[in-house]
Design a protein that fits this description.
The complex is a heterodimer of chains A (356) and B (282). Chain A has 356 residues and is of the alpha/beta class. Chain A folds into 2 domains: 78 residues; 208 residues, 2-enoyl-CoA Hydratase, Chain A, domain 1. Chain A contains 12 helices and 13 strands. In chain A, the strands form 2 sheets. In chain A, strands 3-4-5-6-9-10-13 form a 7-stranded mixed beta sheet, with helices on both faces. In chain A, a hairpin with a 4-residue loop joins strand 1 and strand 2. By secondary structure, chain B is mainly β. Chain B has one domain: Lipocalin (Beta Barrel), CATH 2.40.128. Helix content of chain B is 5%, strand content 62%. Chain B is built from 3 helices and 11 strands; from the N terminus they run H-E-E-H-E-E-E-E-E-H-E-E-E-E. In chain B, strand 5 and strand 6 form a beta hairpin. Classes of the chains: A alpha/beta (356), B mainly beta (282).
Chain lengths: 356, 282
């Protein structure tokens, strides 16, 4: 054998042995643990501790101290608890985050914090909207319910973004409403859904590539382990109809998550005015994980900032604040829609803009 | 990778009894025994084999869940090998296509992962001189994997894509022994990823950010034995049947990674069965 071959082979063999030893000695394991009350509690606290994205912000905004939360609730855990009692303690612990995107799902209950709207006026009456404004001959295209109001103002009701909305759907709708003098988009009660649906719709209300916010994700288990916020742009709809007339966007406290993001996008358009109540917020993109007992956990993992790099986790205030009036309700009218119509008429009167 | 080198000259001597019993314990020493082996010329036989397997699986991906999911796996392995003229014809060329499909459940048995993937590897092995009935080969393999894991109840993190391009260190040993006048062959092969690149999302990064917003964050990672301590084992026994061989065996995959603080492992053990066909190289 030639000497260099022998040396090379020896080196290679030694390298193989070293690799084999390294590989054999390294075990990458999960957090597998016994399904006990204590372990489930600790697993939930740790999961949020290492993955939740709003700790720094909420420490400033609401004084959240996650270590103190652990001390407060760990003392309530015992192995004698029933699953329902454990669930109740966990629910209270998660409520400290004040985040509608944080949930604990079990076979017997669903933990949630909906205080972002439960503690506020609803500012929406579905039966009035249905009877007085939509009627029975409204049209529907993939989650968009639309009608032309007697004042020749277009009205689009979007109760959820859970339905996939395509450019064709939006263009069909806007085409039908193209002779209207203005548009009212009503997303009250919209708890979110697909962010792509929200962006698809918003892209029909801008004419240039627009900065709509920033995103930042967790890069590690530390509370401050966040990536540098990256700008997020929205391109105008390349095909179909782009709305070029005044538009009022109606919001209430139940506008959450993707609906909150939709409001954020629409506010970048000079044609759009928001009217109503502050949105519910929910600017974190939720991820899902679980506990040793199999309960599913949802938590905010990715932060969406607005174009000024501000958090919208606790909501976006409207351009024109508005509350439902009992007088309108007694007349089977919706205060938001009536106020929007009056505002649009006033704007049209001041600007003298052509209705077409 | 498996290996089929067969003595190219005279047929083997009559089989002594008890060869199987004596040969099996030596499998544990195969890799160590490659040290200081003398060189030997290479056989001129080429072959292909197809194996189907079924076994158990244990999958962890902390992007989806912090807990190991356990269940079943089906695996198909297709192998080819042929001699080359490289390094005085000591180098043989081997390919392997390895497809896995897994169905696993979380510890509470109320959530499921579905995993599928395909790994293709091409290896060049140096064939050492035979020692008695042992044949040894070792070398490098370039391998690529594409696959993914889907969790049936996660929301914005429902799946994890798996892509890697690795250079593996590969060793292989073959032992021939006679049974009732036929030459049976046992083969053991081992592959260890040495260096490469792989795809991984960042710790808490969503796929929406990566693919819709094009916000990349260390999504191509450098794989080393420190962050990718993995091994792939294959032990087979060829039983001559006419012009082909029945091949039975066992495949053990111990794939692990710690990329962007996301922990991953996929352990599997499959019983394999299939056939091998041999051809004479021109």
């Amino acid at each position: 054998m030639k000497p260099y071959r022998s040396t090379l082979l020896h080196l290679c063999t030694l390298l193989c042995l070293a690799l084999l030893l390294q590989t054999t000695a390294s075990c990458i394991a999960g957090d597998d643990t016994q399904d006990t009350r204590q372990n489930n509690f600790e697993a939930l606290w740790k999961l949020i501790d290492e993955h939740y994205c709003f700790f720094d912000y909420k420490q400033q905004a609401i004084g959240l101290d996650w270590n103190a939360v652990h001390s407060k609730y760990a003392a309530q855990i015992s192995e004698e608890m029933t699953p329902q009692q454990l669930f109740e303690v966990m629910t209270h612990m998660l409520a400290e985050l004040r985040d509608g995107h944080v949930n604990l799902a079990t076979a017997f209950d669903y933990a949630r914090n909906w205080s972002y709207y439960e503690n506020h006026p609803q500012n929406y009456n579905d039966s009035i909207v249905q009877v007085t404004y939509l009627g029975t001959d409204y049209r529907i295209t993939s989650g968009l319910y639309y009608q032309i109001l007697p004042d020749n103002i277009g009205y689009i009701r979007i109760p959820t973004f859970s339905v996939a909305i395509g450019h064709g759907n939006v263009s069909t709708c806007l085409d039908e409403l193209s002779l209207c003098t203005a548009l009212i988009i009503d997303i009250r009660g919209n708890g979110g859904g697909q962010i792509t649906s929200a962006h698809t719709l918003a892209s029909h209300f801008i004419n240039h590539t627009t900065l709509i916010g920033y995103t930042s994700h967790k890069t590690g288990p530390g509370h401050s382990d966040l990536s540098t916020p990256r700008p997020q742009y929205l391109d105008p709809a390349a095909d179909g109809i782009r709305w070029q007339k005044p538009c009022i966007l109606l919001t209430n406290r139940q506008c959450y998550s993707a609906a909150n993001d939709f409001v954020q996008c629409m506010q970048t358009s000079p044609l759009v005015t928001t009217l109503g109540d502050t949105t519910g917020g929910g600017s974190g993109m939720p991820f899902t994980s679980e506990l040793p007992c199999g309960w599913s956990v949802r938590y905010s993992a990715v932060i969406h900032y607005d174009p000024r790099m501000q958090h919208t986790e606790f909501g976006i205030p409207p351009d024109i604040p508005c509350q439902m009036s009992g007088t309108h309700t007694a007349r089977q009218q919706d205060t938001y829609i009536e106020t929007a119509k009056e505002y649009l008429k006033t704007q049209h009167h001041h600007t003298g803009a052509s209705p077409l | 990778m498996t290996h089929t080198p067969h003595p190219s000259s005279s047929p083997p001597s009559p089989p002594p009894k008890g060869g199987l019993r004596r040969g099996l314990p030596f499998f544990l020493l195969l890799l160590i025994s490659t040290l200081s082996l003398p060189l030997h010329g290479q056989e001129s036989e080429r072959s292909h084999s197809l194996l189907f397997g079924f076994g158990t699986s244990n999958i962890l991906d902390t992007y989806l869940s912090p807990y190991s999911y356990k269940g079943i796996e089906a695996r198909i392995i297709y192998q080819t090998e042929r001699p080359t003229r490289l390094w005085d014809s000591h180098i043989s060329f081997h390919t392997q296509t390895d497809i896995n499909a897994d169905y696993v459940k979380n510890p509470a048995k109320n959530a499921k992962d579905y995993a599928v993937g395909i790994r293709f590897s091409a290896a060049w092995l140096y064939n050492f001189r035979d020692i008695h009935r042992w044949h040894f080969a070792a070398g490098l393999a370039a391998s690529a994997y594409a696959g993914g894991i889907y969790n049936d109840r996660n929301g914005n993190n429902p799946a994890q894509g798996k892509l890697d391009l690795l250079i593996d260190l590969t060793a292989q040993s073959t032992y021939r022994f006679p049974v009732k006048g036929k030459w049976w062959k046992a083969t053991y092969s081992l592959s260890i990823p040495f260096v490469g690149i792989a795809f991984s999302p960042m710790y808490g990064q969503s796929y929406y950010e990566i693919f819709s917003l094009k916000n990349y964050d260390h999504n191509v990672v450098f794989a080393t034995p420190l962050n990718t301590p993995s091994m792939r084992h294959l032990l087979t026994l060829d039983i001559p049947l006419g012009k082909s061989s029945l091949r039975i065996g066992c495949a053990a995959h111990l794939m692990q990674a710690r990329w962007n603080r996301i922990r991953y492992h996929a352990y599997s053990l499959d019983i394999m069965i299939g056939y091998t066909k041999h051809f004479i190289a021109l």
